[in-house]
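Escalated from tier 1: zinc ion holo job.
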Amino acid sequence: MPSNVQTRRIWRNAVVFDGLRTLEGLHAVVVEGEKIAGVLPMGEVDDSRYNHHQDMGSGGVITPGLVDCHTHLVFGGNRAEEFEARLEGVSYEEISRRGGGILSTVNATRQASEDELLQSALPRLDAMIADGVCTVEIKSGYGLSVEHEMKMLRVARRLGEFRPVRVVTTLLGAHALPPEFSNNSDGYIDLVCREMIPAVAREGLADAVDVFCEKIAFSVAQCERVFEAAKAHGLPIKTHSEQLSNLGGTASAARFGALSADHVEYLDAAGFSADLCRWNIETPAQLAYAVQSGRLMTRVTFAVTVMRLKWRNKLWLSASRRCLMAAICRLYWAAVTKWPSRTGVAWQPTWHLESLAREWAL
Ligand SMILES: [Zn+2]
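Tier 2 regenerated the structure:
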């Protein structure tokens, strides 16, 4: 602990999660300037040594800053009516067919100015910061033209200047087919690959490129064209895949070394095993996301994820262990899919109010 008693702040009676584990009992966290100077059990605190006190009320948690790696924070309009329909059981595909879904947000986003989008996004960002988010990824995807996708990304960049949070931006030009390209999805992919990605890369507006690989969006082959264009411009890739059906987008993302594949609710056993054992990604948290509930299986998921990270980091690479890894993956998948009642895993897309709100515009 530091000996200097000047400008020292203390947060008392906190539950402290250090990034790996939750410390037992209540603790105090001491901060000097911008740095954490120490963590003390409450019994060892000498109040006279500190000149700024904050009591966490025997229930507050102090944790490393949270990273929200998938948001659609910038958009125009709102889709409250669709939210109600979804709660009543109307499928996302049905809403999309009725003219709702992404395209209704596209219209509102195109009509909004950069400043209007910024002003509407700030309260959403503030809510996330209040929840402890320190880094946030923000996707475009409601402009669906070079001009409006760039507008969205500029707004995302500006949000990082207006608030004390690190913003990472993702171009999601291949999110939906814009009305002017109806019945010409290949033509729109041409636009994304030949004009949108080069323009965004030239201005440094995106840190990654995302796609929506789905029946109501783009095929695996079309998404792979986007991956190749992104890689040609030095941008890493991500996917929305296996969200509504099992098309093979996740496996494709794995082959292209994607940063992540998000959603993956419909990934089948073959894809699961293959992807888990081949992928060379940095953020495999999506596995945990896919398994929405179930104490035991959630723990197994984390165990598998840790093993996978060890493997990726070349902590063990022998062929026999790879086989063991594949076998564990298959057993895990069999348990989840064949005995859902025993494992406590609901292997159907389930609406989580929190994630639904965050994923409001998909
Ligand atoms: Zn999304």
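The pocket of zinc ion is lined by residues 70, 72, 240, 359, 362 (CB under 6 Å).
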